[in-house]
Sequence to fold (332 residues):
Amino acid sequence: MNARRSGMASLTGLLLWPINFLRQGVLQGLSTVELLLGGFGVVAALVVAALLTPALNQIPGAAGDFAPIGVAILLVPIGILVSLGRRPEVERFFRGVRERTDTVTGAMVVPTGGVRGARGSVVVDTSAIIDGRLADIVGSGFLLADLIVPRFVLDELRRVADSSDPLKRRRGRHGLELLARIQSSPRVRTIIDDRDFPDLPDVDAKVLALARARGAALLTTDFNLDRVAGVEDLQVLNVNALAQAVRTVALPGETLHLQIHQPGRERRQGVGFLADGTMVVVEDARDLVGKEVTVEIHRVIQTAAGRMLFGELASATDANEAQPAGSGTAAS
Fold:
């Protein structure tokens, strides 16, 4: 008799367990994730029970009629427990999706007339401000993000501007002038962040911490800081990398017009530069320093410092001028 009562109590508990779960969720404040996972577990259990029903109905007698209900009652609590046990994995998945979505959204802007679109944010370090090219990038409209200037970066700029070294002082003051120019630009919004991170030893570490705390990208020209940020999985906008990416593309066989600025390392070579700073090494142009020449490119080399072009004089006139005295053919 006691065994029968115990069995009935267990069966009643199984029947009421999903109802108790929902009641606890409403009255005792289970999280939305837990309620969704529990509901998913109930649905999954009922689907499995429905799939098993044709096989269970083959059981002879009354057992075949009640077996599907009993299996459903058994599977529902199991489905809820299994689903709740997967909560950490589900939270990690949605957290990763949210982070990737925030990264993509932060890199995009949809301008609609005078209405500001959804903008990302970029933390600027001292090297990017002093470099001088940031103001031109901002003025061109290519930087579609709000600029976050940390207070400790401003303090470092002021210290550089007050340095006893004339070169450092000049660069620091120039950086402050460029920052004022950027702040006055209508194309971006400049925000001064007062967080300081006093436990961190230097400005670079503080810049990384601020970018991480704000979920922002890092704008820099510092090669080492770029590498450290990459190791810490922070998005980096390197002005030097941008400059390399937008340099003139020249293919073998193309002709360029440029001025020979200096002799090359090898005998008879001359060196010129394109408007973007790309070096062009020209064969037999050593005697044409200071002159405009037409060069045919025959080789392109990509180095760690950038792209180098090698070519030869394409104009017969330039080639004749470059021919050293005494090398011509004597008339008979």
Observations:
- The chain has three domains: 9-85, 119-245, 255-322.
- DSSP finds twelve helices and ten strands in the chain.
- The radius of gyration is 35 Å.
